[in-house]
Amino acid sequence: MEAILEDHDKQDIECCKFPPEHQHPNCMNIKVPADDPFYKYFKRQCLDFARIYAGPKPGCKLGPRFQINTISSYIDGNFVYGSTQDIASRLREFHGGRLKTNKVYAELGLKDLLPMKMVEKDVGCMARPRNVYCFDAGDERVNEQLMLTVMHTMWMREHNRLADILSHVNPHWDDETVYQEARHIVAAEIQHITINQFLPMVVGRQTVAKYGLEPEKHGYYDGYSPKVNAGIRAAFQSAAFRFGHSLLPDVIERYNKFHEKIDSLRVSTVLRQPFNLYKPGIVDTFILGLMNEKANAMDPEVTTEVTNHLFEKPGDGFGMDLAAMNVQRAREHGVPGYNKYREYCGMPRARNFYDLVGILPNKTVHRYSQIYRHVDDIDLWSAAISEYPLPGAILGSTLSCLIAEQFANIRRGDRFWYENPGWPSSFTPEQLAEIRKVTIGRIVCDNSDDITTVPRNTFMLGDPMRNPFVECNSHHFPHMDLTKWRDTSYDKK
């Protein structure tokens, strides 16, 4: 996540309401054409856009502008725990190794919600009702999209579930030991789910194998190298991993435990407004919505809910344009065009627009020929989300390449990767075997209030033949045996 410039009240910098000579020097406004089919009705001539904080180059040398990342690049659960000691401490209960929660409906037998954000209450939220608070978590974007808040809630619950069991298995462990080991396990679960379930679905199993991203079935991983830079590349951050914006639906659907649709909410109405989660029992209905609602197609189209109404303020009628912001952010970061990355990923460089026929939809190629002067000018994000997908994948060849390469570097360059042997932090073979049982379905089953069935592959839509709904207590979703974490050294004392 980039460090975006803010004003003294920690609000996004406003640029467009000032004449150019009075704007903040880091304003990089997005110009709106006079004939824009939507914004023309609101007489909008530009959209606010602020540059990222500039960071120093290694050795404070002169050169291209560097951006500051505010979170860890590793898959370490930083969205649960934070990327600094201050954030981690703010979120801890300091009792039993647990994270802080909001036990708002404990008397109803419902699981805890995320803690309330008591400091800088309105930062990251808008239209907050009186006496209702935003949520707090390890990543400040927790309130940005309601379904994201739901995922944060599940993983907070998972940490506390593990902490409670570890405290029972090892009653002599103090708060710090329980907290750190539960955190260690959560990070391992996220890593395992990422490479075992998420990446094969997104980039395809063939690409996963090509980049050495298949999880070990037994034993340890021997691919760690201290020479591999696990940092996030600009193309990944500014373009490639924003592919999900094409998949966003127009509405967020809610379902009951029988997987029957209840209702839906416009996406634009739940951005920076997570307050629905304070209603008793509603968290499950949104989790079930994530499992049952169809994503939009992976294609050049992005829902108007985020291209016309992103972070729309009540009464305005319009918001920001996420697609335009993606393109502008990559340009601000100096990310080369799509053609450059095709070549980087081992594919032929397009000599003209019509070399892209068969790679991108004909309509998209024609549009590019009308918009850009040269094929080399095509922006990476726009073209990459438009590629026809690889077999067995959601994404096309360029995005699959960039994303797989980034995750391969993260795995190879992380000394604390869950499969690594020989370090004080390494899991035992028995513990590693338990972590390999974990699936996103198990996480949902353990951390919802009353969800009893989920699709066998919980990342995919349920289907009676290809992906049936199965019981949470079935053999498809085995439990981790946390007795493998019993501290036998204490027993010998």
Automatic annotation (TrEMBL):
Heme b binds at residue 245. GO terms for biological process: response to oxidative stress. Signal peptide: none annotated. SUPFAM superfamilies: Heme-dependent peroxidases. PROSITE patterns: PEROXIDASE_3 (PS50292). It comes from the Eukaryota. PANTHER family: CURLY SU, OXIDASE/PEROXIDASE. This is Chorion peroxidase. It comes from Trichonephila clavata (Joro spider). The gene is Pxt.
